[in-house]
Amino acid sequence: MKSWKKAGLTALAGSLVAFSSAQAEWSASGSASMTYVTHSGTTGDTELSGSPFGMNKDITVSGSGELDNGWVVSASHTLDNGSASNSSLTVNFGAAGTLKYNMVDGALGAGKIDNVMPTAYEEASDGATDSALSQISNGATGFDYTITVEGIEVGIGYAPKGAAGATTQGGGVSGAGAGASEKSIYAKASPMDGLTIGAGIGEGQNSSSIQNTDDETTMFATYAYGPVTVGYQVTDIDVYSSSSDIDVTYYGIAYAVNDDLSISYNKIIEDTAGTAYDTEYSGVSVGYSMGGMAIKAYVNEESGHGSATQEVETTEISLSFAF
What we know:
Blueprint lengths: L2 H22 L1 E5 L1 E10 L11 E3 L2 E9 L5 E9 L2 E10 L5 E6 L38 E8 L2 E8 L22 E11 L2 E11 L7 E13 L2 E11 L7 E11 L4 E12 L6 E12 L2 E11 L7 E11 L2
């Protein structure tokens, strides 16, 4: 065998050994988290009939390695109740940005700024029982690219047509069952100390006609001064082939009492054209940490969905430990 062939095979074998070693360096992470949840209300109440207690059973396996050119490649796979719930492959190009391919769960592009209001725990719409809040959503399975230039962070998301079915290697959906491709872009920056502003636009899949998309825009501003952070955000969704366009307004204020304790108040107003009542979500959250233990809770209320007197209240208490 010629010497150059021997050298090539030797180099290839060395690369494979190095690659295999890098692949073997995986770690598992999870959380010891327990929650208590109750619902109560007037119209449309969905009282819990079973135990209000539950546990987080997610386990994430992740690994990373650095290529010869300095790029860092990482991957993660999350299991929920023993079944795959999310996977991602990320390449960090350094100053040239980060590219991720994400599957099943999460947010792409402008979907990552769907609600950036300050809170001590969850959003005001968390636990809503009667309807899902209409907000920026541009798919979860697809590509996401993020880069920061001169202090401005820009993110681009793209969920290819039929990506929702591509949950395994080579998987996918074709033909009439495939939905429209979703795409979006956002930018955010901090022009002065404490102030963060941003905006995003995109096309999200229509809920009833998945081959078509809704036009989505959002803008926000948050300002932190000492222990207080306030936020304001507006989102507009032009629904495909419908007069039921949606305007959503978000408000939030959080106060850090000390390094361990914080409280917040959030409010969301969803105005859908052609409906008699606005749907309103409001909530108070509190978060307290002591070493590796964290106790968090919220009381959220949803009102105005379908009638002027409809109200549903959700209470959640979470206890988690870090090891």
